[in-house]
């Protein structure tokens, strides 16, 4: 059978070791006689799974003690609503939320937040992050929202925390598609959230990391099941959480620790991205339209100069076991997502095909 490499942007490739362990434990988890799918979410068996997942994630990201980790239902779209619903309760009517618009996901965030508050797009560019000194921030904004890796557009960045305007400002970051792929300083953010289906586990789980002082600020209309304080006070068990997804996420966290942690994942991410971008940049047969300084290490969109060859390119890729390379419908072209679970061998196989198709 042809070796398969899955470049899907999400739901995405998972480590084979994790899938094998889940398969082995499917019918009987650790002698309990139950599948994880059958366990009570408040029973001792699942609570041990949950506690281990929370502990391992806290260790991997060096999450400070004054932050809570929540495992919630949904994904990035749901959090686009839950963030303002949970952070605007301490602000009077007429509150403003600042946004950095760098692509499709930050655009979705802006649209959703506009239902709850005034929004200010402090900077906008979908191919290069505007210079931070030029960001037009609101002095008393409720918070500043940024998507630090745009899954569709392939823009990645980290803000410069030396900016004095950040003092006492609440920073909210959507890290859905690059969390656990690079070392971050969690303490610089008020809230970090991430859908699981890219670098953590199956679709349906969202991770929220929130500083303690930001809890208890939900708007009165916020549903109780999605009030971050209630979720935190009940250790993510206020209502039934996505138990099997949390279990798989926990196995991924264990796998990451075995591989050497986030620092090792960052080293591998750099190597994979450099290999792929080098092949795309040889000549103009392929094009990546993102400024080199802001190119994503996780999601690499590219275009054929002659787009009449798109279908032939995808057919040839599929024949070689290189799957899910078609770009998002909103932008077209191609996209290779090279998350933590994608081995460098998969990227090398793609590079070999890029060169072959280009006739190099």
From TrEMBL:
It is found in: Cytoplasm. The keyword Repressor does not apply. Binds 1 pyridoxal phosphate per subunit. Its EC number is 2.6.1.52. Pyridoxal 5'-phosphate binds at residues 105, 151, 174, 197, 239-240. Its cofactor is pyridoxal 5'-phosphate. One of its GO terms (cellular component) is cytoplasm. It holds the Pfam family Aminotran_5. Pathway: Cofactor biosynthesis; pyridoxine 5'-phosphate biosynthesis; pyridoxine 5'-phosphate from D-erythrose 4-phosphate: step 3/5; Amino-acid biosynthesis; L-serine biosynthesis; L-serine from 3-phospho-D-glycerate: step 2/3. Keywords: Amino-acid biosynthesis, Aminotransferase, Cytoplasm, Pyridoxal phosphate, Pyridoxine biosynthesis, Serine biosynthesis, Transferase. Its main location: cytoplasm. L-glutamate binds at residue 42. InterPro entries: Aminotrans_V_dom, Aminotrans_V_PyrdxlP_BS, Pser_aminoTfrase, PyrdxlP-dep_Trfase, PyrdxlP-dep_Trfase_major, PyrdxlP-dep_Trfase_small. GO terms for molecular function: O-phospho-L-serine:2-oxoglutarate aminotransferase activity; pyridoxal phosphate binding. The modification N6-(pyridoxal phosphate)lysine is found at residue 198. GO terms for biological process: L-serine biosynthetic process; pyridoxine biosynthetic process. It comes from the Bacteria. Belongs to the class-V pyridoxal-phosphate-dependent aminotransferase family. SerC subfamily. Catalyzes the reversible conversion of 3-phosphohydroxypyruvate to phosphoserine and of 3-hydroxy-2-oxo-4-phosphonooxybutanoate to phosphohydroxythreonine. This is Phosphoserine aminotransferase. It comes from Duganella rivi.
């Amino acid at each position: 059978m042809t070796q398969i490499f899955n470049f899907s942007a999400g739901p995405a490739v998972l480590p084979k070791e994790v899938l094998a362990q889940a398969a082995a434990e499917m019918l009987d988890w650790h002698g309990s006689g139950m599948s994880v799918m059958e366990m009570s979410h408040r029973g001792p068996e699942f609570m041990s799974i949950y506690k281990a997942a929370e502990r391992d994630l806290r260790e991997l990201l060096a999450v400070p003690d004054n932050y809570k980790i929540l495992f919630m239902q949904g994904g990035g779209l749901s959090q686009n609503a839950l963030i303002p619903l949970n952070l605007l309760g301490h602000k009077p009517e007429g509150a403003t939320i600042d946004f950095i618009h760098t692509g499709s996901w930050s655009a979705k965030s802006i649209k959703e937040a506009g239902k709850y508050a005034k929004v200010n797009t402090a900077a906008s560019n979908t191919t290069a992050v505007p210079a931070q000194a030029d960001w037009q921030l609101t002095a008393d904004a409720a918070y500043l929202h940024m998507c630090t890796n745009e899954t569709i557009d392939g823009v990645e960045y980290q803000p410069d925390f030396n900016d004095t305007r950040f003092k006492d400002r609440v920073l909210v970051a959507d890290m859905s598609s690059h969390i656990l792929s690079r070392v971050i300083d969690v303490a610089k953010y008020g809230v970090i959230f991430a859908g699981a289906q890219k670098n953590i586990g199956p679709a349906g789980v969202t991770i929220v990391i929130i500083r303690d002082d930001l809890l208890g600020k939900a708007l009165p209309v916020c549903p109780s099941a999605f009030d971050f304080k209630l979720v935190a006070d009940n250790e993510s068990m206020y209502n039934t959480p996505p138990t099997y997804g949390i279990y798989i996420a926990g196995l991924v966290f264990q796998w990451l620790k075995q591989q050497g942690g986030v620092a090792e994942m960052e080293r591998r991410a750099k190597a994979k991205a450099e290999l792929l971008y080098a092949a795309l940049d040889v000549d103009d047969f392929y094009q990546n339209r993102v400024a080199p300084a802001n190119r994503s290490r996780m999601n690499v969109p590219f275009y054929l100069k002659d787009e009449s060859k798109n279908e032939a390119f995808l057919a040839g890729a599929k024949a070689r076991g290189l799957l899910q390379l078609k770009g998002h419908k909103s932008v077209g072209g191609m996209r290779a997502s090279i998350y933590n679970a994608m081995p460098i061998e998969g990227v090398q196989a793609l590079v070999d095909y890029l060169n072959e198709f280009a006739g190099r």
